[in-house]
Design goal:
Elements lengths: L1 H24 L5 H27 L13 H24 L4 H20 L3 H12 L2 H12 L6 H31 L5 H52 L1
Helix pairs in contact: 1-2, 1-3, 2-3, 2-5, 2-6, 3-4, 3-5, 4-8, 5-7, 6-7, 7-8
Amino acid sequence: MTSLAVGVVLCLTGWITLYTLLCNTSGSRGFEWNCRLVTLLHGILAVCITAYIGYVDGPWPFTHPGTKNTPLQITAMVISLGYFIFDMGWCVYFRTEGPMMLAHHTMSILGILLTLSLGESGIESCAVLFGSEITNPLLQARWFLRQLGRYESLTGEAVDVLFVVLFVFMRIVVGGRMLYCELISPRPRFIIKYGGVAMYVLSWVFMVDIGRFAYRKSQSKYRRWRNQHRSKTVNSHDGKTA
Protein backbone atom coordinates (compact mmCIF):
# COMPACT_ATOMS: atom_id res chain seq x y z
CA MET A 1 0.00 0.00 0.00
CA THR A 2 2.93 2.32 0.65
CA SER A 3 4.12 2.00 -2.93
CA LEU A 4 0.58 2.72 -4.18
CA ALA A 5 0.38 5.84 -2.04
CA VAL A 6 3.73 7.02 -3.37
CA GLY A 7 2.56 6.36 -6.91
CA VAL A 8 -0.63 8.38 -6.41
CA VAL A 9 1.32 11.28 -4.91
CA LEU A 10 3.77 11.22 -7.82
CA CYS A 11 0.94 11.18 -10.38
CA LEU A 12 -0.87 13.98 -8.56
CA THR A 13 2.35 15.98 -8.55
CA GLY A 14 2.78 15.28 -12.25
CA TRP A 15 -0.70 16.58 -13.14
CA ILE A 16 -0.20 19.68 -10.98
CA THR A 17 3.19 20.27 -12.61
CA LEU A 18 1.71 19.94 -16.09
CA TYR A 19 -1.05 22.41 -15.21
CA THR A 20 1.47 24.86 -13.77
CA LEU A 21 3.63 24.66 -16.89
CA LEU A 22 0.61 25.31 -19.11
CA CYS A 23 -0.38 28.30 -16.99
CA ASN A 24 3.15 29.71 -17.25
CA THR A 25 3.41 29.20 -21.01
CA SER A 26 -0.13 30.18 -21.99
CA GLY A 27 -1.42 32.15 -19.05
CA SER A 28 -3.35 34.53 -21.28
CA ARG A 29 -5.80 31.75 -22.08
CA GLY A 30 -7.00 31.57 -18.48
CA PHE A 31 -6.99 28.93 -15.76
CA GLU A 32 -9.92 26.92 -17.08
CA TRP A 33 -8.44 26.68 -20.57
CA ASN A 34 -5.27 25.12 -19.16
CA CYS A 35 -7.15 22.85 -16.79
CA ARG A 36 -9.22 21.55 -19.69
CA LEU A 37 -6.04 20.85 -21.62
CA VAL A 38 -4.92 18.68 -18.71
CA THR A 39 -8.36 17.04 -18.69
CA LEU A 40 -8.10 16.39 -22.44
CA LEU A 41 -4.67 14.81 -22.06
CA HIS A 42 -5.86 12.59 -19.22
CA GLY A 43 -8.87 11.50 -21.24
CA ILE A 44 -6.77 10.48 -24.23
CA LEU A 45 -4.17 8.76 -22.03
CA ALA A 46 -6.79 6.90 -19.97
CA VAL A 47 -8.65 5.70 -23.07
CA CYS A 48 -5.44 4.44 -24.71
CA ILE A 49 -4.23 2.56 -21.63
CA THR A 50 -7.59 1.04 -20.69
CA ALA A 51 -8.34 0.10 -24.31
CA TYR A 52 -5.05 -1.82 -24.39
CA ILE A 53 -5.92 -3.45 -21.08
CA GLY A 54 -9.37 -4.53 -22.22
CA TYR A 55 -8.64 -5.58 -25.79
CA VAL A 56 -5.03 -6.81 -25.60
CA ASP A 57 -3.68 -7.37 -22.08
CA GLY A 58 -6.93 -8.74 -20.64
CA PRO A 59 -8.85 -10.19 -19.07
CA TRP A 60 -12.14 -9.42 -20.83
CA PRO A 61 -14.26 -7.41 -18.34
CA PHE A 62 -17.58 -8.94 -19.40
CA THR A 63 -16.47 -12.50 -18.61
CA HIS A 64 -13.87 -12.04 -15.85
CA PRO A 65 -15.12 -9.43 -13.36
CA GLY A 66 -13.76 -9.64 -9.84
CA THR A 67 -10.33 -10.95 -10.86
CA LYS A 68 -7.05 -9.89 -9.27
CA ASN A 69 -5.57 -6.57 -10.33
CA THR A 70 -2.73 -6.73 -12.83
CA PRO A 71 0.26 -4.34 -12.75
CA LEU A 72 -1.01 -2.49 -15.83
CA GLN A 73 -4.48 -2.11 -14.33
CA ILE A 74 -2.93 -0.71 -11.16
CA THR A 75 -0.87 1.75 -13.20
CA ALA A 76 -3.94 2.98 -15.09
CA MET A 77 -5.92 3.43 -11.87
CA VAL A 78 -3.07 5.22 -10.07
CA ILE A 79 -2.63 7.66 -12.97
CA SER A 80 -6.36 8.41 -13.09
CA LEU A 81 -6.65 8.65 -9.30
CA GLY A 82 -3.95 11.32 -9.28
CA TYR A 83 -5.80 13.20 -12.00
CA PHE A 84 -9.22 12.99 -10.32
CA ILE A 85 -7.78 14.30 -7.04
CA PHE A 86 -6.18 17.20 -8.93
CA ASP A 87 -9.33 18.03 -10.89
CA MET A 88 -11.57 17.66 -7.84
CA GLY A 89 -9.44 20.17 -5.94
CA TRP A 90 -9.40 22.54 -8.94
CA CYS A 91 -13.19 22.38 -9.36
CA VAL A 92 -13.84 22.97 -5.67
CA TYR A 93 -11.37 25.87 -5.53
CA PHE A 94 -12.65 27.65 -8.65
CA ARG A 95 -16.29 26.55 -8.17
CA THR A 96 -16.76 25.78 -11.85
CA GLU A 97 -18.75 22.54 -11.63
CA GLY A 98 -22.13 21.58 -10.26
CA PRO A 99 -23.09 18.81 -7.82
CA MET A 100 -23.30 16.09 -10.50
CA MET A 101 -19.73 16.49 -11.73
CA LEU A 102 -18.44 16.68 -8.16
CA ALA A 103 -20.42 13.51 -7.36
CA HIS A 104 -18.87 11.82 -10.41
CA HIS A 105 -15.35 12.75 -9.31
CA THR A 106 -16.04 11.69 -5.71
CA MET A 107 -17.40 8.31 -6.79
CA SER A 108 -14.50 7.82 -9.19
CA ILE A 109 -11.94 8.55 -6.46
CA LEU A 110 -13.66 6.28 -3.92
CA GLY A 111 -14.15 3.52 -6.49
CA ILE A 112 -10.50 3.49 -7.53
CA LEU A 113 -9.33 3.63 -3.91
CA LEU A 114 -11.59 0.69 -3.06
CA THR A 115 -10.39 -1.36 -6.03
CA LEU A 116 -6.74 -0.68 -5.21
CA SER A 117 -7.20 -1.52 -1.53
CA LEU A 118 -9.05 -4.78 -2.26
CA GLY A 119 -6.54 -5.81 -4.92
CA GLU A 120 -9.31 -7.05 -7.22
CA SER A 121 -11.93 -5.90 -9.75
CA GLY A 122 -9.36 -3.73 -11.48
CA ILE A 123 -10.62 -4.82 -14.88
CA GLU A 124 -14.09 -3.44 -14.10
CA SER A 125 -12.61 -0.14 -12.92
CA CYS A 126 -10.56 0.11 -16.11
CA ALA A 127 -13.65 -0.66 -18.19
CA VAL A 128 -15.55 2.09 -16.39
CA LEU A 129 -12.63 4.48 -16.97
CA PHE A 130 -12.66 3.62 -20.68
CA GLY A 131 -16.42 4.16 -21.00
CA SER A 132 -16.32 7.38 -18.99
CA GLU A 133 -13.32 8.97 -20.64
CA ILE A 134 -13.98 8.04 -24.28
CA THR A 135 -16.46 10.92 -24.56
CA ASN A 136 -14.16 13.32 -22.72
CA PRO A 137 -12.22 14.62 -25.77
CA LEU A 138 -15.52 15.51 -27.46
CA LEU A 139 -16.74 17.27 -24.33
CA GLN A 140 -13.58 19.35 -24.18
CA ALA A 141 -13.76 20.02 -27.94
CA ARG A 142 -17.23 21.57 -27.44
CA TRP A 143 -15.85 23.90 -24.80
CA PHE A 144 -12.80 24.91 -26.87
CA LEU A 145 -14.98 25.53 -29.92
CA ARG A 146 -17.19 27.84 -27.84
CA GLN A 147 -14.19 29.77 -26.58
CA LEU A 148 -12.88 30.17 -30.12
CA GLY A 149 -16.27 31.26 -31.46
CA ARG A 150 -16.55 28.25 -33.77
CA TYR A 151 -19.22 26.24 -31.98
CA GLU A 152 -22.06 27.40 -34.24
CA SER A 153 -20.62 25.58 -37.23
CA LEU A 154 -20.71 22.23 -38.97
CA THR A 155 -17.82 21.11 -36.76
CA GLY A 156 -19.77 22.03 -33.65
CA GLU A 157 -22.81 20.11 -34.92
CA ALA A 158 -20.68 17.04 -35.67
CA VAL A 159 -19.07 17.13 -32.21
CA ASP A 160 -22.47 17.38 -30.50
CA VAL A 161 -24.00 14.52 -32.48
CA LEU A 162 -20.97 12.28 -31.99
CA PHE A 163 -20.86 13.06 -28.27
CA VAL A 164 -24.53 12.18 -27.74
CA VAL A 165 -24.32 8.97 -29.79
CA LEU A 166 -21.10 7.84 -28.11
CA PHE A 167 -22.42 8.66 -24.64
CA VAL A 168 -25.63 6.70 -25.16
CA PHE A 169 -23.83 3.72 -26.64
CA MET A 170 -20.92 3.52 -24.20
CA ARG A 171 -22.43 4.74 -20.93
CA ILE A 172 -25.98 3.41 -21.26
CA VAL A 173 -25.91 0.43 -23.64
CA VAL A 174 -22.43 -1.03 -23.04
CA GLY A 175 -22.45 0.21 -19.45
CA GLY A 176 -25.77 -1.56 -18.83
CA ARG A 177 -24.38 -4.80 -20.24
CA MET A 178 -21.26 -4.42 -18.08
CA LEU A 179 -23.37 -3.88 -14.97
CA TYR A 180 -25.48 -6.95 -15.76
CA CYS A 181 -22.35 -9.11 -16.08
CA GLU A 182 -21.06 -7.66 -12.81
CA LEU A 183 -24.26 -8.37 -10.91
CA ILE A 184 -24.73 -11.98 -12.07
CA SER A 185 -21.09 -12.95 -11.50
CA PRO A 186 -20.33 -14.57 -8.13
CA ARG A 187 -16.76 -13.22 -8.02
CA PRO A 188 -17.08 -9.45 -7.41
CA ARG A 189 -17.74 -8.36 -3.85
CA PHE A 190 -21.06 -6.81 -2.93
CA ILE A 191 -19.56 -3.36 -2.35
CA ILE A 192 -18.08 -3.41 -5.87
CA LYS A 193 -21.48 -4.33 -7.30
CA TYR A 194 -23.09 -1.55 -5.29
CA GLY A 195 -20.54 0.93 -6.67
CA GLY A 196 -21.29 -0.25 -10.21
CA VAL A 197 -25.00 0.40 -9.69
CA ALA A 198 -24.26 3.86 -8.29
CA MET A 199 -22.09 4.77 -11.30
CA TYR A 200 -24.73 3.52 -13.73
CA VAL A 201 -27.44 5.54 -12.00
CA LEU A 202 -25.20 8.61 -12.27
CA SER A 203 -24.80 7.91 -15.99
CA TRP A 204 -28.59 8.02 -16.34
CA VAL A 205 -28.68 11.33 -14.47
CA PHE A 206 -26.20 12.71 -17.01
CA MET A 207 -28.28 11.10 -19.78
CA VAL A 208 -31.36 13.03 -18.68
CA ASP A 209 -29.41 16.29 -18.85
CA ILE A 210 -28.05 15.38 -22.28
CA GLY A 211 -31.57 14.53 -23.46
CA ARG A 212 -32.81 17.93 -22.33
CA PHE A 213 -29.90 19.61 -24.11
CA ALA A 214 -30.60 17.67 -27.32
CA TYR A 215 -34.31 18.56 -27.14
CA ARG A 216 -33.64 22.27 -26.59
CA LYS A 217 -31.11 22.35 -29.41
CA SER A 218 -33.42 20.54 -31.84
CA GLN A 219 -36.28 22.90 -30.95
CA SER A 220 -34.02 25.91 -31.47
CA LYS A 221 -32.90 24.60 -34.87
CA TYR A 222 -36.52 23.92 -35.87
CA ARG A 223 -37.63 27.44 -34.91
CA ARG A 224 -34.68 28.90 -36.83
CA TRP A 225 -35.56 26.81 -39.90
CA ARG A 226 -39.23 27.78 -39.64
CA ASN A 227 -38.41 31.49 -39.42
CA GLN A 228 -36.08 31.24 -42.40
CA HIS A 229 -38.75 29.39 -44.37
CA ARG A 230 -41.35 32.06 -43.54
CA SER A 231 -38.91 34.80 -44.51
CA LYS A 232 -38.26 33.16 -47.88
CA THR A 233 -42.01 32.72 -48.45
CA VAL A 234 -42.71 36.37 -47.66
CA ASN A 235 -39.87 37.58 -49.88
CA SER A 236 -41.07 35.38 -52.72
CA HIS A 237 -44.61 36.69 -52.34
CA ASP A 238 -43.43 40.31 -52.25
CA GLY A 239 -41.39 39.73 -55.41
CA LYS A 240 -44.39 38.36 -57.29
CA THR A 241 -46.61 41.23 -56.09
CA ALA A 242 -44.08 43.83 -57.21
